[in-house]
Amino acid sequence: MTRILTLFLLLASTSLLAGDWPWWRGPDRNGVAESGQNLPTEFSDEKNLVWTADIPGRSHGSVCAVGDKLYLAIADTEKKTQSVRCLDARTGKTLWDSVVHENGMTQKSNKKASWASGTPACDGETVYINFVSGDAAWTTALDAESGRQKWQTRLIDYVIHQGYGSSPALWKKLVIVSADNKSGGVVCGLNRKTGAVEWEADRAKEPNYPSPIILKAAGKVQLFLTGTNKVTSYDPLTGKVNWEIDGATTECVTSTVTDGKHIYSSGGYPTNHVAAIAADGSGKTVWKNSSRVYVPSMLIHEGHLYAIMDAGVTACWDSTTGEEKWKGRLGGNFSGSPTLVDDKIYAPNESGEVFVFRASPNGLEILARNKIAGEIFSTPTICNDRIYLRTASYQGEKRTERVVCFGK
Questions:
Q1: Total-model pTM
Q2: How confident is the model at residue 15 (pLDDT cuts 50, 70, 90)?
């Protein structure tokens, strides 16, 4: 999808501006930031740090940036609350904090998971967020200026297997949300104004973690979900299945990307795979390999697919043929997804390092390796000449979380 078409579709149904990062994986939902930004490749607490803001609890969701405001989901494990916080993008100052759920963090989850792993979505007027609280998954809408709750919708019973991190996706009059789990999954189109269910589609009784992702592929806008041993395309306005094939694997995490003709599935349990699938509904898997790209989502750039495997190896494939162009090691384990700006990829590992390397089929060229924290599970948000990232540091057993802003 071209950026001009994307902006037209966004501005037709929202109050967004060019340069916003309004939801998971950015304006085009593919991890690609606006080109031409004046960004540093080297940064730390001593270099190119604009501001830092302390954040309570443990949360892995990324920053949503709209206008001069930032929105992020927070799980405060001491107060036992799940909330959304609004920060001033220029200073990091807290503008408001709205509690969405209390005393609902009752189920057991994977030690790498958090109770606020989703990224908010914002249309300029309303902020939308998904949480699991108690025995259910919920979507909540908050006023973007004040944090006042507008509505809250219970999606489905939810049994945590590893965790929950599905982020909402906005499309025209709808906010589209999903909650795949062992008790039975669902994907819904909710009315953005009221929270009423406009459509819903049942999903398999399998644990699965991707966010619904909306892309233009094979000439039309499609809503994609991978996992539960299927790859499924829906009409985002009606929920009608465009096509569905056997593929992927049971548990997926990544959000698919497209080159316009194919979409790219990856998963890690019980089968490791990366696959290019024809987006026209023909059911054709064009190519496939056994790389373990389980958690970090992939990137497409100029006919090539870039991936970071969970164990710290990065690779480049020809997106049409699957030919491996190169493979190299960055180091560490990765849970956050990479973000692309022009020909540079910004990729954080779990140990608090952010790698900057070239998006080029000619080989792995590392431009910078920045140690900025003790831990990072989030994905960089890059817009308006700024890099926003949620990090954590340790002093002994004490863990402190913060949002950092870097820029020249």
A1: 0.95
A2: low
